[in-house]
Amino acid sequence: MIKLLHLLNSSARGGRELYVCDLIVELQKAGVENYVLCRKHSVIDTTCKKWNIPVIHTSTNTKFSFNEVFRLSSFIKKNKITTLYSHSRNDVFTGSLIKLFSGIKHVHGIYMGTGPKKDLIHRFVYGRVDVLITSSEFSKKECENYLPVPQGTVKLIRYGRHINNYVRSEETRKRIRKMMNTPDDKLVIAAMSRIDKGKGIDIFADCIHHLSPGEKSRVEFWMMGEPTVKSIDENGTIVYEEQAEKLHSKLIQLAKENSDLFKLIPFQKDYITYLNGMDVFVLPTHNEMYSLSVIDAMLMGLPVIGTNAGGTTEQIGNDERGLLVTPGSSQSIAEAIRYLLNNPSETKLKGENAQTWALSQHDFTKTVAEVLRNLRTPELQ
């Protein structure tokens, strides 16, 4: 049996954290005995408690601690853990030092883009990663070029999704639109993301100013998400990043001044229900490694407007599954909206292409099988 210790020392509840929650649960269903290091009151903590998965709360508020390394090394030995799975840039440091002391197999998941990291410290850290898992061809090449990992370490394993959950329902669409006070004939242009300048949410909001009055009367913008979480205190109170709170305040004001055009939706666990009410999805991030929200939108048959950078180019393809736009350009997003608004048959075709591709690439059954194969130690093969 695989006995697996996950490391995710994060207070956030963005795409990475929610995906790791899903992955841990699916591995548990597949027979893995999971243990999880996480922050108290985090989304990981809540999920593990729901599924009765043992949790170790991080003992420090810093990104890295030698005391944590020694504590976890002892825990691994005591509980006969077979494999370590680190899930963030900070956790990979902890994981590599634990490997140094315990000799345990170290698997690392990459969820964000990376730059050149070939200095002495990073050679030590990434040289002690046995398997590095990433979800896109773009990221795989980037990791092989920029990270000092042994040859053959980087593995491409697509993000998994529970594809049977993504069912479009006309009844749900009508209910959501009625709740949102959105006419059925409006083309809903939507984004789901942390509200953060790094995610390009300000660019998304600004694109409405590049549309004509006639175009504005035919569309509606939905923005779903919450500001980036900075920390969660001992009582479970969330503290948001200052820049994210400022941006959120601007969006609230925009929604007040344009109540029939721009609508804010708080963070939703049941985002699939809201996807039923949307028509076009926008990913305005400047350089996304590979977007989970784009996969979700595509699985629901939505064409995607995304920046021509990072893994987004790979997801959208040569405009088969949406439209690629210039990073950082609200005008470019507005032009793409205009094109889809005036070409409904092509909008529909791009959405169908997106759904077909996403279904073929992101079935959790395949993902879990591949992850399990890479988690096993030689004696468990």
Question: What would you note in describing this structure?
Answer:
The protein is an alpha/beta fold and 381 residues long. The chain folds into two domains: 3-160 and 363-380, Rossmann fold (3-Layer(aba) Sandwich), CATH 3.40.50.2000; 163-361, Rossmann fold (3-Layer(aba) Sandwich). It is built from 16 helices and 15 strands. It has helices at 15-29, 43-50, 66-79, 89-102, 120-126, 137-146, 170-179, 201-206, 213-216, 242-257, 271-275, 292-299, 310-316, 330-342, 344-361, 364-375; strands spanning 3-8, 33-38, 55-57, 83-86, 105-109, 131-134, 154-156, 187-192, 219-224, 229-232, 238-240, 262-265, 280-283, 304-307, 322-325. The strands form three sheets. The protein has a seven-stranded parallel β-sheet, sandwiched between helices. Strands 12-9-8-13-14-15 form a six-stranded parallel β-sheet, sandwiched between helices. It has a two-stranded antiparallel ribbon with strand order 10-11. Strand 4, helix 4 and strand 5 form a beta-alpha-beta unit. Helix 1 (15-29) packs parallel to helix 2 (43-50), helix 3 packs across helix 4 (89-102) and helix 12 (292-299) packs across helix 15 (344-361). The longest helix has 18 residues, at 344-361. It is globular and about 65 Å long.
Q: Termini separation (Å)?
A: 10 Å
Q: What structural class results from the helix and strand content?
A: alpha/beta
Question: Can you tell me the CATH architecture of the largest domain?
Answer: 3-Layer(aba) Sandwich
Classify the beta-strand content into a percent band.
15-25%
Strand order of the largest sheet: 3-2-1-4-5-6-7
Low-confidence stretches: none
Count structural domains.
2
CATH class of the largest domain: Alpha Beta
Helix content: 40-55%
- Count of helical regions: 16
Q: Might you state the CATH topology name of the largest domain? A: Rossmann fold
Q: Could you say which overall geometry the principal axes of the C-alpha atoms support?
A: globular
CATH H level of the largest domain: which superfamily? Answer: Glycogen Phosphorylase B
Mean pLDDT: 94
Gyration radius over CA: 21 Å
What profile does the largest beta sheet have? 7 strands, parallel
| Number of beta strands | 15
